[in-house]
């Protein structure tokens, strides 16, 4: 079964990676879908975000046989036409002494600039997975899950975030990094480097 893990991922955090790899331990294929508004400027472009996700996943997974594929982008099916590399899974950094099941499925990365339900319908996806850090996330996600169900018939599955990442968000990490704070351990290493370069260049 294929599920979509949607988000803006500007940029991807270690909390995101935790949800993505845990989803891959449950479902056969997980498509990480970078959703974006072309009329709004983020810190990274959609393709930069997708590339950072691929690179971060390649570092994060280690020996369990998960395949990290790159999608064609801009609404393509994300079926591994670019940036293909095989990796497995490492429990390093998951915290709380937990040893999650090794991912069994394939992880693909894609981008999309229209309604999420349009992607689900066009690609025949019937389920999504989202992470919940707190009851505030639940209150925000519930009406969207209900609307997506009404429009596309897709179910939304929620995974509770690892407690060590319960306070981590892309916005908070960007604010800390903007003023020179250390975000090591909160963002994947490729993202820490990319964020540092962006702010050093005056973004």
TrEMBL record:
This is Phosphopantetheine adenylyltransferase. It comes from Corynebacterium bovis. Its main location: cytoplasm. It comes from the Bacteria. CDD domains: PPAT. Reversibly transfers an adenylyl group from ATP to 4'-phosphopantetheine, yielding dephospho-CoA (dPCoA) and pyrophosphate. One of its GO terms (cellular component) is cytoplasm. Belongs to the bacterial CoaD family. Its cofactor is Mg(2+). It is found in: Cytoplasm. Pathway: Cofactor biosynthesis; coenzyme A biosynthesis; CoA from (R)-pantothenate: step 4/5. Homohexamer. Residues 4-56 form the Cytidyltransferase-like domain. The lineage of its organism: Bacteria, Bacillati, Actinomycetota, Actinomycetes, Mycobacteriales.
